[in-house]
Amino acid sequence: MAADLRSVTDCEIPQPLLTPVTDFDPATAARIEASGMGTFYGQFEHAPGLIDKWFAFYQPVVQDSSNLPLRTKELCRLRIAARNGCMFCLGGRFRDVDGVPVVDDDDVDAVLGGRLDDPRFTPSEAAALRFTEQYRLDHTKVDKALVDDTLEYLTEAQFVELGLCIAQFTGMGQLFATLGLPSM
User: Fold this and answer.
1) Domain count, the chain
2) Which domain CATH number covers 15?
3) Which CA distances in Å does 99 have to 62, 78, 93, 95, 96?
4) Is 95 helix (H, G, I), strand (E, B) or coil?
5) Residue 161 has what pLDDT?
6) Radius of gyration of the chain, Cα coordinates, nearest whole angstrom
7) What is the extent of the structural domain holding 34?
8) 1 within domain boundaries
9) What's residue 88's pLDDT?
10) CA separation for the pair 140, 6 (Å, rounded)
11) What is the per-residue pLDDT across 19-40, written as a single tens digit (0 to 9) for each?
12) Which residues share a beta bridge with 95?
């Protein structure tokens, strides 16, 4: 897999920063058993139930493809994960209703390699990736020209959803990287 990214290695934190919680209630223990996300819950269970409240927001926003396709969200999420150096985010993939990843390894290589205008991406995916890149690098430099270019390929509803998703991916990915969550 391609590595862009100074940030992937520069930002990698080798171990969780908080002493992991190991005494889980039965419901959390069952989620860990089903998901294999012991390190994840070991960090977030310092505030019991909080991450599950976040999941209740996150999952419906990401999985609903009525405005913005899940594949577009996944491409943008991976670009942010690379920029954030979030090993946890880089290790996972969004999947369709049949459990199939919505991007393949060649898509991942192109995104991580910074080839945001790769011909494998549709014009709307490339526009979303260009917007995502600028937003993640310096949101204060997002200007009318970039927004207008993005809106040539996305509807206003898609643009707002993209903005919400990339803001969430940026912030949570930075938190996951800070906590030293490993790749899944």
Assistant:
1) 1
2) 1.20.1290.10
3) 15, 18, 10, 5, 5
4) strand
5) 96
6) 17
7) 6-179
8) no
9) 79
10) 22
11) 889 999 999 999 889 888 888 8
12) 101
* Cβ count near 129 (within 10 Å): 24
Look up the pTM and report it.
Answer: 0.86
What is the rounded distance in angstroms from the CA atom of residue 143 to the CA atom of residue 52? 35
Assess contact for 88 and 176: CB atoms under 8 A.
Answer: yes
CA angle 76, 130, 149 (to 5 degrees): 125
How many CB atoms are located within 10 Å of the residue 113 CB?
A: 15
Q: CB under 8 Å to 42, separation ≥6 — which residues? A: 16, 20, 21, 22
Tokens 């430099």: give the residue.
141
CB 22: neighbour CB atoms within 10 A? 9
Q: What are the residue ranges in the chain where pLDDT is below 70?
A: 1-16, 183-184
Task: Please say whether the beta carbons of 70 and 163 come within 8 A.
Answer: no
* E strand or H helix at 150: helix 144-151
Tell the burial category of 6 from Cβ atoms under 10 Å away from its Cβ (0-12, 13-18, 19+): exposed
Bridge partners (DSSP) listed for residue 101: 95
First to last CA, the chain: 16
* 8 Å CB contact between 88 and 78: no
